[in-house]
Design a protein that fits this description.
With 444 residues, this protein is mainly α. The protein has a domain of 128 residues: eoxyguanosinetriphosphate triphosphohydrolase domain-like (eoxyguanosinetriphosphate triphosphohydrolase fold). Helix 1 runs parallel beside helix 5 and helix 12 crosses helix 17. Keywords: Hydrolase. InterPro entries: dGTP_triP_hydro_central_sf (IPR023293), dGTP_triphosphohydrolase_C (IPR027432), dGTPase (IPR006261), dGTPase-like (IPR050135), HD/PDEase_dom (IPR003607), HD_domain (IPR006674), PHydrolase_assoc_dom (IPR026875). This is DNTP triphosphohydrolase. It comes from Splendidivirga corallicola.
Length: 444
């Protein structure tokens, strides 16, 4: 993390460049978003999704930045006004670019699969009780509920062996913008928006506290555990993600023949009719003129839908800016647009019924469960076996760890496991599949 130096780029533009040229970001191109990655029909992966979220986020940041720069307490501030007017859009875009970097292979099922090994050992059996005793309550919670959001912060700030000090060395503003759930695992609470999940692993607590202190985040008043209110910029990053996946998943489902042209068209038109910037009749005529290529017609309506949601979310942010600035706004921006709740709920219902439960998606999730949890079992079992007790196979497995993920034998069990999870969570779908098959003798 750093506060900036003289450069042809601003420090916030440099954040963008460091993320986009990084290996963890490139690996997103072979990580599933929702659908398996087919050979013939193009659908979104984690990388294309992240780029589109960044595009939406930049628009949101630009709209809100210009508005904030006109406020009395900001417009005469020689540092604050140029930041909000010229740089906020770059902060939000960079955070959006990085928001999924902590997600493992095989979509959201990959997160749960990483924790499956530890959940299965959370029993009253003597050997499992002894295993669990190696970890503190906070550490055990991290391992049984692996969280991609927390892993993103770890990837961006971790100094791996043989790598540059300080990780990506991003600005505090960008790091604060990805802290969607600024709390530790034991403080998470599904009933509360900013603690629905958690934002950092116990091993990264010092880094987390450094970020929230620098940004003056508001401490959450809870009885136990560490938790803070969100940074205001998080709402814009979250909105960009919500807008993108809700709309893009529908478009992909149409391309794959899971949803009909009429179903997707009508849902998008239901959103667009609420836009004060578009004549709905003109939009309908344009969409109809493109029906010779249904994919192109849907792409046109997708663009208009996203544009409508951007301006609607920006309006919600502006109207609720006081509650957002104090950390007391307890809904996402997209869930705070009354006139769109009906159609967004419809899209969510259809997505769950027909997209996320589509046969190909379910098959991928099952495969992901077996592959990721199998790899965790192989590597964790080997790493936590004392060196003098490891058999030849376990030594060979440990030898497969790349240098940057290796651990010292004197490390605590939790630190060893986190090094293993760093390795496995960073794998692409294809690499995880190949390694799993080789370790099981299915492929040589």
């Amino acid at each position: 993390m750093q506060k900036g130096q003289d450069d042809i780029r601003t420090q916030y533009e440099r954040d963008w460049d460091r993320i986009i040229f990084s290996s963890p970001f490139r690996r997103l191109q072979n990580k599933t978003q929702v659908f398996p990655l087919p050979e013939e029909v193009f659908v979104h992966n984690r990388l294309t999704h992240s780029l589109e979220v960044a595009s939406v986020g930049r628009s949101l940041g630009k709209i809100i930045g210009k508005k904030l720069s006109t406020l009395e307490q900001i417009k005469d501030d020689e540092k604050a006004r140029p930041f909000y007017r010229n740089s906020l859009k770059n902060v939000i875009a960079s955070a959006c670019l990085a928001h999924d970097m902590g997600n493992p292979a095989f979509g959201h099922s990959g997160e749960e699969a990483i924790s499956k090994y530890f959940k299965k050992r959370d029993t009253k059996k003597t050997e499992d009780l002894e295993f669990k005793e190696q970890f503190s309550n906070e550490e055990w919670k991290d391992l049984t509920t692996f969280e991609g959001n927390a892993n993103a912060l770890r990837i961006l700030t971790l100094q791996q062996k043989g790598r540059n000090k300080g990780g990506f060395r991003l600005t505090y503003s960008t790091l604060g913008s990805i802290l969607k759930y600024p709390c530790e695992s034991i403080a998470s609470d599904k009933r509360i928006l900013h603690r629905k999940k958690y934002g950092y692993f116990k091993i990264d607590e010092k880094v987390f506290l450094d970020v929230v202190t620098e940004l003056n985040l508001v401490r959450d008043n809870i009885e136990s555990g560490i938790a803070y209110k969100r940074h205001p910029f998080v709402y814009l990053v979250e909105a960009a993600d919500d807008i993108s996946y809700n709309i893009i998943d529908f478009e992909d489902a149409h391309r794959l023949g899971i949803l009909s042209y009429l179903d997707v068209r009508d849902s998008f038109l239901e959103i667009i009719k609420n836009s004060p910037r578009d004549d709905i009749n003109w939009v309908k005529e344009q969409a109809k003129s493109l029906e010779g290529d249904p994919n192109e017609s849907i792409a046109y309506l997708r663009a208009k839908s996203i544009n409508t949601l951007i301006y609607k979310c920006a309006d919600v942010f502006w109207k609720n800016r006081e509650a957002i600035l104090t950390g007391d706004f307890d809904k996402s921006l997209i869930d705070s647009i009354p006139e769109l709740q009906s159609v967004m709920k419809k899209i969510e219902t259809i997505s769950i019924d027909k997209i996320y439960n589509a046969k190909s998606v379910v098959q991928l999730e099952i495969a992901g469960f077996r592959i990721m949890s199998g790899l965790v079992k192989d590597f964790v079992t080997s790493s936590l076996t004392p060196k003098y007790l490891r058999d030849k196979e376990q030594n060979k497995i440990i030898g497969l760890l790349p240098k940057q993920f290796s651990f010292d034998e004197s490390n605590s069990p939790y630190v060893k496991v986190m090094h293993i999870i760093d390795f496995i969570a960073g794998m692409t779908d294809l690499y995880a599949l190949k390694l799993y098959r080789k370790l099981r003798g299915i492929e040589l």
